[in-house]
Specification:
By secondary structure, this protein is an alpha/beta fold. Helices cover 35% and strands 25% of the residues. The protein folds into two domains: 246 residues, P-loop containing nucleotide triphosphate hydrolases (Rossmann fold); 63 residues, Alpha-Beta Plaits, CATH 3.30.70.100. The protein is built from twelve helices and 15 strands. Strands 7-8-9-4-10-11 form a six-stranded mixed β-sheet, with helices on both faces. Strands 1, 2, 3, 5 and 6 form a five-stranded antiparallel β-sheet that branches. α7 links the parallel β8 and β9. α4 crosses α5, α5 packs across α6 and α6 runs parallel beside α7. The two termini are 26 Å apart. Bound molecules: adenosine-5'-triphosphate. The site of adenosine-5'-triphosphate has 11 residues, from α2. Belongs to the ABC transporter superfamily. Keywords: ATP-binding, Nucleotide-binding, Transport. It holds the Pfam family ABC_tran. This is ABC transporter ATP-binding protein.
Length: 332
């Protein structure tokens, strides 16, 4: 897979690094966002584009820089270099106006174990100077309802399952209406039932119009609930775009099974296929724009004995493994 092709075909043109005059209408846009810890570059010139209305999966193995990026997006730590816009506004200048419109799950809220879910939300709401105390009961009820915790609202937090705790944390992020939700590993550590609950909740929030950015190390999570993906590897964003675009860009390969792989490779090369390789009893190449029938006919014409012929489209996992050299956990 040509990495450059994936990068070039991003959703929209990427402005030059540090183009400070540029304003994006994306829900999240970063410009050369960088964080160094001592000599280590944890996040390296990242150019995120999260379109409005997207469910954007921020995918990468442990230590690839996802949490550090999210902490910068939320203003929890300062970037070493670069800047970002949230909801079309420059964060550095307008954080106070933007943050009330952004719900976040990062370094989760500190819940009191002996208070109920409802009482915990009331405490958090009281600490939020931007929240209207006159509407607190209605907003807490709505947030509990939204995450399916109405029946368990009176139970102590310590009696909650992990899935319920995570849903309460999301309820805390929903105490006021949000245009953007940024969730750091919202299903991490949950059992299959809790995972399903949180994924259904995320999909529901997106269906109601919120933009959601969530980090994950699970490709399957991205495939199940995301419309867009950005892949991090060693601090760098190695690709991003809509899943549909990335799948469409996957280059199909032709595979010929034959006792004369070198002769088959010659035919494939003569037909103009790129990246032609041979293995024991096989020859392969990128299909490009050619019709597979044309290739079979030419092989037969060239007296190449064809035992088997196939066209394989790489799946997202193949593409990402090629970009990062690492496997992704596809379970759960
Ligand atoms: N406060 C810090 N001080 C020093 N190094 C840090 C700090 N925070 C993160 N790092 C390092 O930066 C790199 C990126 O970490 P980060 O937590 O952003 O990755 P991640 O993709 O979120 O991984 P995980 O899924 O494990 O949280 C790691 O090598 C990590 O050790």
């Amino acid at each position: 897979m040509a990495e450059a092709a994936l990068r070039e075909g991003g959703d929209r043109s990427v402005p030059a690094l540090g183009a400070s005059s540029h304003r994006s209408d994306d829900a999240v846009a970063t410009y050369g966002l960088t964080k160094r810890f001592g000599h280590q570059v944890a996040v390296d010139s990242v150019e995120l584009r999260v379109p409005r209305g997207a469910v954007y999966g921020f995918l990468g193995p442990n230590g690839s820089g996802k949490t550090t990026t999210i902490r910068m997006l939320l203003g929890l730590i300062m970037p070493t270099a670069g800047r970002h816009d949230l909801l079309g506004e420059p964060f550095q200048e307008k954080a106070g106006a933007i943050l009330p419109r952004v719900g976040a799950l990062c370094e989760g809220p500190a819940f009191h174990p002996y208070l109920s879910g409802r009482a915990n939300l009331a405490r958090l709401d009281a600490a939020d100077r931007t929240a209207d105390p006159r509407t607190v009961k209605r907003r807490i009820d709505a947030a509990l309802e939204r995450v399916g915790l109405t029946a368990a609202a009176g139970k102590r937090y310590r009696a909650y399952s992990l899935g319920m705790r995570q849903r309460l944390a999301i309820a805390a992020a929903l105490l006021t209406p949000r245009d953007l939700l940024i969730l750091d590993e919202p299903t991490n550590g949950l059992d299959p039932q809790g995972t399903r609950e949180v994924r259904a909740l995320v999909s529901g929030l997106a269906a109601e119009g919120a933009t959601v950015m969530l980090s994950t190390h699970l490709l399957s999570e991205v495939e199940q609930i995301c419309t867009h993906v950005g892949v991090m590897h060693q601090g760098k964003l190695v690709t991003q775009g809509s899943l549909a675009q990335l799948r469409a860009r996957a280059q199909r390969r032709v595979r010929v099974e034959t006792e004369r792989p070198e002769a088959a490779a010659e035919t494939l090369t003569a037909l103009g296929l790129a990246e032609v390789t041979t293995g024991p009893g096989t020859a392969e190449g990128l299909l490009g724009e050619l019709a597979p029938e044309k290739i079979v006919a030419t092989l037969v014409h060239d007296d190449v004995p064809v035992r088997g012929f196939g066209v394989v489209a790489p799946d997202l996992e193949d593409m990402f493994v090629e970009l990062t050299g690492e496997g992704f956990d596809v379970s759960a």
